[in-house]
Design a protein that fits this description.
By secondary structure, this protein is mainly alpha-helical. The chain is built from 22 helices and 13 strands. It comes from Mucilaginibacter defluvii.
């Protein structure tokens, strides 16, 4: 049973707009077949822009229990509902979060139907395929669908794609799993074609939550996503990577933080990330030692606005006692412990009420309930382009692109809260002290990507696997899953429900994908 603060429950309670059209009683199952054999969640006349904005909204679901813990930015010693990447184990209620939320139509706690982005986007595309006057929304949906499926493939490998989201449209309730390489090939094609097809002379879709339908910004987003997808091939197909990097760069990438794809949450529609840091598990989630120590060792001014030591870690805003943000006093929690053994960790600072005296995310800056959720950022894009130039796949000044990426993330922090602003002087001093070294450029660029993707766990984990940076030591938890003991989690396991409900397609996926464990690598993640 999930507790009331599990992301599945939180998102169902607060963040997904219910699209319930009608309720059908069991006694009517044999009558009026044509009437009841209609999607009760997505009425035929529902405005496509409404479905699209809900797809954007419902995709704001990080998996806090794996990705940020695998890349050692967050950690908890606790077992139970928080189990996952903290102990390198496969725990179905948490490994299935991304799969279930992207694909499923499920009932929330009030009985209303909530629908994930795959179904929503598939329906938008079906409704608009023969409406050329609304080609912009059609192509925006193609671009965002590519974003969603990048996350799914990066997380699980082979997943349902060509038959996904078609339960109501075509009666496909047990979709086949597609070859992950085929999916990525189609993602590249879709991003390329859909971005080029956007046309500012056609209808502008103001219901878009990212840019209110601004076509130049959508073109930058499409090309920046294409750059991201292209760079996934850096270890497996350099020619293909360069081919699509060139297309993306020529099409025009994000140029500033004004181009960031984000949803700004508020006091009514709360951020899932901020709510997680404010909920009852707040006293159990800490910044991981490798992340804190890297920021300390480099005198990174971001540490002061990200990290805090609370006098009462479990208190919602730590109103009791002081809030210590002094970088020198921050202490990240070490990996490899549970609630029973954490007290044996070297330098254990002791307990404070229901929590521990380790550093946490500052709930007045990056942990507020109304913070934005970032999907794709200029900082990430500039750093990926810096790597592409370093590899000879694009032209430009690597050092300038690197500096732009670092400064962009420092500036981005102010979008969480004004008190998280990092001055230009502090930014310049940091870059002066840590200039790009050509001999270590790939490591520096991708380590900065790790920092700039903080709270964007899907992308931080994907780029860590792709690039191998930062250089982290595997989680030493003694009873980790045998497949990854002494190593890193490379993918998440499929939901247990798929093994029984969609057994034949699940088995075919495992036969192609490899063992359904935490060690099997996705196709672009080569050793």
């Amino acid at each position: 049973m999930l507790n009331s603060n599990h992301p599945e429950i939180i998102m169902k309670k607060k963040y997904i707009i219910a699209l319930l059209a009608s309720m059908i009683t069991l006694g009517a199952c044999k009558k009026n077949f044509e009437e009841i054999n209609v999607n009760p969640v997505l009425p035929a006349d529902l405005e496509p822009s409404y479905l699209f904005s809900n797809a954007q909204f419902s995709a704001a679901l990080p998996n806090y229990y794996y990705q940020p813990m695998i890349v050692q930015q967050l950690i908890t010693p606790n077992t139970g509902v928080l189990e996952g990447g903290n102990h390198n184990v496969s725990y179905d209620p948490n490994t299935n979060i991304t799969f279930n939320y992207m694909y499923r139509s499920t009932s929330n706690t009030s009985g209303a139907i909530v629908t994930g982005p795959v179904v929503l986007l598939t329906t938008v595309l079906d409704k608009l395929k023969d409406q050329p006057a609304r080609s912009n929304l059609y192509n925006m949906a193609r671009i965002f669908k590519a974003y969603v499926f990048m996350i799914l493939v990066d997380t699980y490998g082979d997943v349902p794609y060509t038959e996904a989201g078609k339960g109501y449209l075509e009666g496909i309730n047990l979709p086949k799993y597609d070859n992950q390489q085929d999916i990525y090939n189609d993602i590249l094609k879709e991003l390329d074609e859909a971005t080029k097809a956007l046309d500012a002379s056609k209808a502008i879709e103001a219901g878009d939550l990212f840019y209110k339908g601004d076509i130049p910004k959508w073109k930058k987003l499409g090309n920046s996503l294409l750059l991201r997808a292209a760079m996934r091939y850096s270890k497996t197909d350099a020619a293909k990577a360069q081919q699509y990097v060139t297309i993306a760069v020529n099409g025009g990438l994000m140029q500033s933080n004004a181009d960031n794809a984000l949803i700004q949450f508020n006091s009514t529609f709360n951020s899932p990330t901020g709510s997680w840091f404010q909920a009852t598990e707040r006293g159990n989630i800490y910044l991981a030692a490798p992340f804190v120590e890297y920021l300390q060792d480099t005198d990174d001014p971001r540490l002061r606005v990200i990290s805090v030591k609370y006098a009462q870690p479990a208190n919602p805003l730590a109103t009791v006692g002081t809030e210590n943000t002094n970088p020198a006093d921050q202490l990240g929690m070490p990996l490899g412990y549970n609630e029973s053994t954490i007290s044996t960790a070297p330098g254990f600072p002791g307990r404070l009420g229901a929590g521990y005296a380790y550093s946490q995310v500052n709930r007045r800056t990056l942990g507020k309930i109304d913070i934005p959720e970032f999907y794709v950022t200029y900082s990430q894009t500039a750093l990926l382009l810096a790597e592409a130039v370093q590899r000879g796949w694009a032209t430009g000044n690597v050092a300038t692109l690197y500096a732009n990426g670092v400064k962009a993330h420092m500036d981005q922090l102010a979008q969480y809260d004004g008190t998280a602003t990092i001055s230009e002087d502090a930014q310049n001093a940091y870059l002066l002290a840590h200039p790009l070294s050509p001999a270590n450029a790939l490591e520096q660029i991708n380590t900065q990507y790790w920092v700039s993707s903080f709270l964007n766990g899907n992308e931080a984990w994907a780029n860590f696997r792709r690039s191998g940076y930062p250089q982290l030591t595997p989680n030493p938890y003694p009873t980790a899953d045998a497949s990854v003991k002494g190593a890193f989690i490379r993918r998440l396991t499929y939901p247990l429900r798929e093994q029984t409900v969609n057994a034949a397609n699940y088995q075919a996926a495992v036969a192609h994908n490899g063992p359904d464990n935490l060690a099997t690598r996705v196709f672009w993640d080569k050793e």
